[in-house]
Amino acid sequence: MRGMTDRATRWTQATVYPDMWVDPDDDPRNTDGPSPEGELATLHDYLTSYRMTLRMKCQGLDAEQLARRSVPPSTMSLLGLVRHLAEVERDWRNWISDGEPLPKLYGPRDADFDGAVADQAVVDAAYRDLEREQAATDAALAEHPEPGARVGKDGMAVRELLVHRVEEYARHCGHADLLRECVDGRVGQ
């Protein structure tokens, strides 16, 4: 895949629309039927789509590729993004709770990115952490089905927390587009 300049060649697996990641008929984020009804259902639908997008951006890469810091001097990598989003899911639960904050998953500031090393055990743990933290935050928010409900010590609205979650994933999916293209030339959609 690398050429004389050591840059990845752009590629895609799409055949109908070669500038896309996958063809629309093969895109698991595309759903038939009407859009979700109501504010919470819409926010959850967007969140689900961005979560799926992040996983798609990481698909098919080995531990070294996932841990590659493609844009020096940044410590950001695809694996670092997975670990970071697990960490922020946990932190969002702290915003919902009135109790003591949960401890950090990976340690001090930036440990989520700094510890994203090319080791399959680290990759596997990162995905387990992300799934567990997403499920726990989803469960905590499910206890508050009214979007205007105020939660936690700071009285944040459920709506605000969900919008922030969508924004965080969307922002990092943009990073993942660029990181993936630097790793192997696969272009985003």
UniProtKB/TrEMBL annotation:
Give the originating organism.
Answer: Actinacidiphila glaucinigra
Q: What is this protein called?
A: Mini-circle protein
Q: What is the lineage of its organism?
A: Bacteria, Bacillati, Actinomycetota, Actinomycetes, Kitasatosporales
Q: Where is this region: Disordered?
A: 18-40
Output the InterPro entries linked to this UniProt entry: DinB/YfiT-like (IPR034660), MST-like (IPR007061)
